[in-house]
Design a protein that fits this description.
flat; 10% strand; 166 residues; two-stranded antiparallel sheet; mainly alpha
């Protein structure tokens, strides 16, 4: 969907290569990558990556605002907070060494994104566990693994289809 909006083409026309390129660009922005790293990831020139990065941030100005606001607030407070309020102190945010300062800025942005994602998954795990325990037919189901934003369940075969829509 993001590729479709940004590239101004119908969603059905987005090719896998375009989707992957936009996905890598977005992750690069979240991870605080510069143009050289993005160019390496999407296999293009640094100039092309710079143009893509600037175009994306211009088009989705909320992302650019989020990045700027995050760095500014981190400089003011010395820490960032995840969606649910967990703090991470970023000690080198005022470093006079440019590489350390830029790394701290990347850490600030990434902490909010990944920390908030972790908060949401943890909250989901708690809610799903409560729902399983409170639904008699599902009490034999068991959450066995969490991988990034996915939860894996062990479910008796006779209730799989019902549990899948649960």
């Amino acid at each position: 969907m993001v590729a479709s909006i940004w590239l101004d083409i119908d969603e059905r026309q987005v090719q896998d290569s375009q989707r992957n390129q936009v996905k890598k660009l977005m992750y690069g922005l979240i991870y605080g990558q510069g143009s050289a790293a993005i160019a390496n990831d999407i296999n293009c020139s640094i100039a092309e990556a710079t143009n893509m990065r600037e175009s994306f941030l211009s088009f989705f100005s909320g992302v650019k605002d989020f990045i700027s606001r995050t760095i500014s607030e981190c400089k003011t407070h010395g820490y960032v907070k995840s969606l649910f309020g967990r703090k991470r102190y970023v000690s080198n945010i005022h470093s006079s060494i440019q590489t350390e300062k830029l790394k701290a800025e990347r850490q600030a942005i990434n902490t909010i994104c990944q920390g908030s994602a972790a908060d949401l998954v943890k909250k989901s795990m708690i809610l799903v566990d409560k729902m399983i325990k409170s639904t008699p037919v599902f009490q034999e189901a068991m959450m066995t693994l969490q991988i990034h934003d996915e939860l894996l369940f062990e479910v008796p075969s006779q209730i799989v289809s019902e549990f899948a829509v649960f």
